[in-house]
Amino acid sequence: MKNLVKRYGMLLTGYMVVASLIWIVLLVVLPYFTMVDYSFRPNLLAADIGGPNDHYTISNYITLFQNAVHFRVFLDTIWGGALVTLICLCICYPVAFNLAKVATPQRAALLLLLLVIPFWINEILRTFAWFIILAYQGPLNAVLKFFHIIDRPIRYLSGNTGVMVGMVYAYILFMVFPIYNAMESLDKGQIEAARDLGAPTWRIHWRVVIPHAKPGIAVGCIMTFMLAVSSYAVPSILGSTNSRWFTEIIYQWFFEGQNWPQGSAYAFILLLLCIVFILIMMKVFKVGLTDIAK
Amino acid sequence: MSQDVELDHVTMNFGAFTAVKDVSLTIKAGEFFSFLGPSGCGKTTILRMISGFNDPTEGTIRIGGQDMRGIGPNARPTALIFQNLALFPLMTVWENIAFGLEARYVPRAKRRKRAEELLELIALTDAADKRVSQLSGGQRQRVAIARALAVEPKVMLLDEPLSALDLKLRQHMRAELRAIQRRTGVTFIYITHDQGEALTMSDRVAVMSQGVIQQVANAAEIYNDPATPFVATFVGENNIFRGTVVSVAGELAEIDTPSGRLRGRNRAGLSVGSAALLFARPERITPRSGAVTAEINSLDLQLNHIDFEGNFANLFLTGAGERTIIMQMANNGSLPRLQSGETVPVSFAAADAVILPDGPLATS
Predict the structure, then answer these.
(1) Domains plus CATH for chain A?
(2) What number of other Cβ atoms are within 10 A of residue B226's Cβ?
(3) B362 part of a folded domain
(4) Of A197, A211, A212, which has the smallest distance from its Cβ to B151's Cβ?
(5) Number of H helices, E strands in chain B
(6) What is the CATH number of the domain that holds B333?
(7) Shared-domain flag, residues B19 and B110
(8) Is residue B91 part of a domain?
(9) How many CB atoms neighbour CB A92 within 10 A?
(10) Residue B313 is part of which domain span?
(11) Which of A79, A99, B49, B313 has an alpha carbon within 20 to 30 A of B258's alpha carbon?
(12) Quick one: B214 and B124 in the same domain?
């Protein structure tokens, strides 16, 4: 703090601190506290608030474990999120490595541009594009039938398949950039030294590249998982009648059931899930908070 | 058991730029061979071609008689020590050294044992479990060498390994590298821009400039008998006299320069009328004493200033046409007391001077 005052003077430092505090308190802390507070209250009619039934309870939380359907959806969401993260990792690791180490600067710039351009279009519109592509009578099935790879069209939008495809597509950049960033700082000489000492490509990655890129991989996985499990637009557009994402249930509680306390409890459970995932990732990849923040 | 390395008309083009032009030479098994030249002369490119990171545009590289085209760095019997060492920061020292063995599926216990043996060779026995970042520059240097030795290469390639070290350490490492080379008998190919290193450590030196090999010889020959003006000026200090050949007699030739007629060894067999440069080393120029014979060149010069360097002194003399001539004298009690501006008669033997055809010099 003293350094800040020294560098920028009292007035500017004061402004920065106050502005940050307002932002954090007003936009992050207060809403969360309100939500947590709501989650522990029963869902009462306006008249009953303040009355004898208004006391703190954890019944909203127990509901998830008692409701078989909801719990099933919760587990499916975790599983789906993990799968999306894994697929994203498998796709993005080679891309990031190519960008960071293999491609010439011009080609890397071109690749980055190609990766970023789709994101100039709204995410919901891009998800609709996938809805069209994956439709039963859609272009993907048509192309596959034309080349006689399949005989009958495949129903992609059944179950969580379409949802996961849409998510992998939507969150590619969130996986590529952290890994690319981490790999950029890897000295190319180490890769060459490892090759010179006789290591084949897989061993070079396993022993030299991945250990170096670990913070980036951890960050990418965390971002992708969190975005995947808390995504609403993609599951509701690409999901079918037999698929449900946990976020959609939260939505139902709030807007169709008018049960804000219940919805808050589910939302808080989702938040806890993400925190647990982050902690697990940090343990597994042996990265600290500062590594992630970078 | 080390092996020969043969470069056969090797050329390397990067697009329109030619980094290495038609290089042909053979490095003998067990030899300590250096490529000496300024930055950008192509020596690193040659090293990368021998180690397998680049394939030559033209020509063949053979190691132990076997054509290496298409064989990658991990399959060649070479080990490269990078200029910035490229040690693995996320592995311990012994894991670094044993990495090559790990790639060859040697079991862990054996790897550890071999790493410890090599640590003893480089005198770092208690560093096995340390991280690379905990070591000093000289220690990291030795770990890099041990890492390369672990895979028992036939040819060791060293890319300016000492350039990042301070003077005392550099001198110590010179001796160590030479000792390791003699002990293991591995062919060492060493590239550097430091002539002191190249001359003291090598069996033979190849001087390079702009992709072309200027001369391949042992240290004494490179210094005393340079083949081109580049070699004469890149290695050590040399006084240059520019002129035209007026007569040729046996091994000597005489050229006409602004400083008068000077004689030197006609190494290149120049004929009368050729544009030539005469080179005389500062330490071969002495204050004139005794009679002037046909084999002695003599000049009357004016003293500009003296640089006293401790064990020797450089006298900066001015000759005809304002050219500066340096005379080096050992601090053995015979240093004359001279004033700036005094006339100093000097002489040097024709046998100590070399006449070469006019050509590009090393820019200092």
Answers:
(1) 68-293 (1.10.3720.10)
(2) 24
(3) no
(4) A197
(5) 9, 20
(6) 2.40.50.140
(7) yes
(8) yes
(9) 26
(10) 230-357
(11) B313
(12) yes
Interface of A with B (CB under 8 A): 187, 189-190, 192-200, 203, 207-208, 211-212
Does B147 sit within 8 Å of A192, measured CB to CB?
A: no
Q: Which residue of B has its CA nearest to A214?
A: B90
User: How far does B203 lie from chain A, in Å, by closest CA?
Assistant: 26
The residue of chain B with its CA nearest to that of A211 is B90
Note the pLDDT tens digit of each residue in B313-335: 999 998 877 778 899 988 888 77
pLDDT one digit per residue (tens) for chain A, 294 residues: 777 778 878 888 889 889 999 999 999 899 988 888 888 888 777 666 666 666 777 788 888 888 888 888 899 899 999 999 999 999 999 999 999 988 888 988 998 899 899 889 888 898 898 888 888 888 888 888 888 888 788 887 877 788 888 899 989 999 999 999 999 999 999 999 999 999 999 999 999 999 999 989 999 999 999 999 988 888 888 887 766 888 988 888 888 888 888 888 888 888 888 889 889 988 888 877 776 666
Is residue A162 left, alpha or beta, with left meaning phi > 0 and alpha meaning psi from -120 to 50?
A: alpha
Positive or negative CA dihedral for B218, B220, B223, B226? negative
- Residues in B whose CB is inside 8 Å of some CB of A read 51-53, 72-75, 78-80, 82, 84-88, 90-91, 99-100, 102-104, 147-148, 151
Question: With an 8 Å Cβ cutoff, are B103 and A197 in contact?
Answer: yes
- Residue B30, token pair as written in the block: 């067990």
Q: Do the beta carbons of residue B88 and residue B95 sit within 8 Å?
A: yes
Residue of A nearest to B152 (CA): A197
Q: Tell whether B236 is covered by a domain.
A: yes
CB contact under 8 A, A196 and B84: no
- Residues B186 and B293 grouped into a single domain: no
- B143 and B273 share one domain: no
Of B228, B245, B275, at which residue does a domain stop?
Answer: B228
**Same domain, yes or no, for B238 and B331?**
yes
Could you tell me how many residues make up chain B? Answer: 364
Q: How many domains, in total, are found in chain B?
A: 2
Q: Locate tokens 């036939």: which residue? A: B154
The tokens of B171 are what?
């001198």
Last residue of a domain, one of B181, B209, B228: B228
ipTM of the assembly? 0.80
Q: How far is A115 from chain B (nearest CA, A)?
A: 29
**Most B CBs within 10 Å, among A188, A195, A196, A212, to test the B interface:** A196
- A-to-B residue pairs, Cβ atoms closer than 8 angstroms: 64
Same domain, B153 and B237: no
Contact between B78 and B154 under an 8 Å Cβ cutoff? The reply is yes
Cβ pair B258, B323 in contact under 8 A: yes
- B44 lies in the same domain as B177: yes
